[in-house]
Amino acid sequence: MEVVLAEYLGFCYGVKRAIKIARENASTGEKKAATLGPIIHNPQMVARLQDDGVGAINSLDEMENGTVIIRSHGVGPDIYEEAKARDLTLVDATCPHVRRAQLAAKALVDEGYNVVIVGEKNHPEVKSIFEWTNDTATIVESVEEAEKVEKCAKLGIVSQTTFSGENFKKIVMALLDKSQELKIERTICTATLERQKAAVELAQKVDLMLVIGGKNSANTTRLYQLCKEKCQTYHIETAEELSDQWFDKIKKIGITAGASTPDWIIKEVYVKCQKK
Ligand code: SF4
Question: Which helix (H) or strand (E) holds 5?
Fold first, then answer.
């Protein structure tokens, strides 16, 4: 079977950096280290890191002492204060692009703008950006929601870093007449766009696309949706999920993977597909 990998796929800069930082700060002897929330939306990687001495906690209440690692999605300002008050060591692995979105949102609030965050309401990164606006921002996920935003004197817009560029444009268009003064911070990260563009290009040239990544990963799900518009596509987490029935009459398979998908999982899928 011919198997082609997308030009850009898998771990992005921010995720690689966060995992490196987490490993460098792993538990030693008595000193416990854990990420606040799973380091990335990939259960296999989270389990591997646990084996390497970096656990995951859901709240600072679970940590009496030791090191708390902030994952690439970032957190709100309260967590920095709380970690300090609890005398915990805080290691910040927030992706610099996410940090930029957080600070842009904060600056807009400081400059008197009503802030709209274009992104998914339940995504941890969006929650972290929201908290940097003192919980004042409106989170908008669709054109319909954008149309319901109230008119105001000054409107500032930031984006979830992994939001679709096309949908961001549509939402911004729907917000254009909401204010006389509009400031747009286009905080979409190029890693996401590169992966989306490469995935769509490949999906047009193959009979079947496999999108690898956590079922809870927003950027992987987005890759799946985009590829599905071009050809038969399956979203899988590991090579074990591959089904022989999918490959009937298929001559060429394309593979892409979300920004939180480890290389070793991509390799396993690639090798197994070549044998089909
Ligand atoms: S997708 Fe972009 S913003 Fe998000 S962690 Fe990766 S590099 Fe950072």
Answer: strand 2-5
